Amino acid sequence: MTVLHNLERLVVVSNRGPVEIKETPSxxxxxxxxxxxxxxxxxxxxxxxxxxIAWCGRKKRKPGVGHTWPVxxxxxxxxxxxxxxxxxxxxxxxxxFANDCLWPLCHSFIDRCxxxxxxxxxxxxVNQRFADAVAADWREGDVVWIHDYQLALTPAMxxxxxxxxxxxxxxxxxxxxxxxxxxxxxxxxxxxxxLACDNIAFHSPVYLDNFLHCVSWLLDxxxxxxxxxxxxxxxxxxxxxxxxxxxxxRFIALATEPAVRxxxxxxxxxxxxxxxxxxxxxxxxxxxxxxxxxxxxxxLERNPGYADDFTFLQVAVPTRTEGKAYRELRRAVEETVGxxxxxxxxxxxxPVRYQFRSLNPEYLVAHxxxxxxxxxxxxxxxxxLVAKEFVASRIDNTGVLVLSPFxxxxxxxxxxxxxxxYYPHDVAEQxxxxxxxxxxxxxxxxxxxxxxxxxxxxxxxxxSILDSLAQTLGGHLRLSGx
Length: 482
Ligand code: G6P
What we know:
This protein is α/β, with parallel strands linked by helices and about 475 residues long. It has 16 helices and 20 strands. It is about 45% helix and about 25% strand.
């Protein structure tokens, strides 16, 4: 007999929330945040309704679990339960353990990892706060969907409070190989933390494989890689590689809007050059922006014929600006932009334009449409949504995507031009190849990639998560709203 599980409510749990709440002299302001996680998860909770438990950027003298906020404020579609942090937790949990330890470790930057017991203590404490918040809001029929490396311990802490809960987990960043992950002094605790879920998913089969090696070597667990099952404390946990898709229909609709197309033309006019190459990323060292600029410099050096025809525009979205590594990176990037423009610019023309700002979706799509080439060359990236969004927006099948093989998206966008970000000579070479690619070849590649992003879109991703959860529970799942 087929069992049909009705899921009544979706409870999303992540550190970064979809809104940022700030106290201003004229009252509280609520604005939208920029993050790959948020762009992927928000359309789902908007469709299903539910509650999102998250930190909304506020530091409090007495941190804890705060109010719920309707989102959007007028005609709300879901609500956000705010979890606040103290200034020292922000330093030790967020900037410290999450972003100076797990983030560089998982992106295989082991020299950047800081192992500090105070950071670890704070990480445990904040993860417990999130677990308590989930338990307080939880009711029978909920599906709890916890996200990412900042909250790896929350599943086990929440399971201890509500053993019968259905918990899914998505790990948004790379999962490194055993020899890298085992460097972490708390590697076993982190694994046990999210093994408390019913199902766990990653962006790529490579990360899934790394995870399975880690659990079998570090915890001596029984693993069935064929079936995608890990046995832990008498439970079968389903593990899957389920790469996120983009809301392709939304990007297509935006790319069709006359206002967005006019804006794209305005960007082209203001640039003036014949070729526009675009980079758009959070200003993070994993994104390879500095290395990309070096490649652009090399390109200009080797191809003087392009001097009058070429503009590289880097949009660098501010992120983790209180972190030392991020402040240093910003300085280095801005110095490099200055140096390149000093070398190759003329008084009326600069080859590199740089903007330190975030773009709203309309403006972002206008940039995607204005560019001839998107340079998406992270040193390591869980997936990279920019690559998929660029492709989804190119409704006329023009334009070229130059992509790093170290972005999870490269496994799906196989018709992209692949360039090794660690070797600027290769990126410079592939950039030239992309700029000189005939229209028919551009269209052939773009069409194939567009087929991929429209078929494996966001709804497909969410449905695969539900299917894998259904497998754990036995039967089918139905969630109202989808
Ligand atoms: C990546 C992570 C997310 C994170 C986002 C922004 O996409 O996977 O978990 O929210 O970066 O970083 P932030 O530190 O601002 O939350």
